[in-house]
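Example S7 (structure tokens).
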């Protein structure tokens, strides 16, 4: 699938295209999304029916890094909706736990920064036009990273993880930070790979970092962005398998503003 997607979603691609898919790119992105949805839907259906996996690492036992840089990252998010910040925390903890499953390690500060900042511009999508919201968030992150202790390579990886997170798949070959952030985010949004973690621990993460109606509030924002920015990846996701997968997410019932459907 990475070969099918090529460089779609990378920070370089987003800067070159503003995150707008060309005709051929849209076809390839759609095909990759359909393939990913076909693979995940049976597992999501099983998880929703209570037939999850046997469990794995407990993400609730993990602790985010507490450094001058990570405190700067949190300070930069002080005015964001708590829904987005808590989503970032959950995504980080799930990413760390999945790293244990995959045997993949990376710089913890970079992982935390990418997870916390990946949806920085999500709450502003009603004002963004002409470019993908992930690029807007990456541009904010780039200013913050410019004075960080991270190496140039890690700074790139953080920005790349932010813009790549909308892709249906990010392999470890594309970078450890990029891969783990993507899978941590998708676990929190869709429940993908949740069966590889300790289920009680995953739910403790949800309790400590509440969802604030993430599913009910997030989907309309994403749809509005797709309408305002024709050709963006959000629109392609929603036009294919992402919408049904989102409605199958095992976490939806934990959002107090979600009603049964």
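Recovered sequence:
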């Amino acid at each position: 699938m990475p070969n099918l997607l090529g460089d779609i979603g990378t920070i370089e691609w987003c800067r070159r295209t503003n995150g707008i898919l060309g005709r051929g790119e849209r076809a390839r992105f759609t095909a990759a999304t359909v393939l990913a949805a076909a693979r995940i839907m049976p597992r999501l259906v099983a998880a929703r029916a209570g037939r999850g996996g046997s469990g794995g690492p407990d993400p609730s036992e993990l602790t985010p890094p507490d450094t001058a840089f990570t405190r700067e990252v949190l300070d930069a998010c002080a005015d964001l909706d708590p829904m987005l910040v808590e989503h970032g925390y959950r995504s980080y903890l799930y990413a760390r736990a999945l790293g244990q499953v995959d045997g993949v390690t990376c710089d913890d500060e970079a992982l935390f920064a990418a997870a916390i900042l990946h949806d920085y511009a999500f709450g502003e999508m009603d004002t963004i036009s002409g470019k993908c919201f992930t690029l807007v968030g990456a541009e904010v992150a780039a200013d913050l990273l410019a004075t960080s202790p991270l190496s140039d390579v890690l700074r790139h990886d953080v920005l790349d993880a932010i813009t790549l997170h909308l892709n249906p798949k990010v392999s470890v070959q594309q970078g450890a930070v990029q891969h783990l952030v993507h899978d941590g985010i998708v676990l929190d949004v869709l429940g993908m790979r949740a069966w590889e973690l300790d289920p009680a621990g995953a739910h403790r993460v949800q309790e400590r970092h509440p969802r604030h109606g993430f599913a009910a509030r997030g989907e309309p924002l994403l749809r509005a962005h797709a309408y305002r920015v024709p050709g963006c990846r959000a629109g392609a996701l929603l036009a294919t398998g992402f919408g049904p997968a989102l409605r199958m997410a095992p976490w939806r019932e934990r959002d107090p503003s979600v009603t049964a459907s």
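Notes on this example. Residues 257-261 have pLDDT under 50 and may be disordered.
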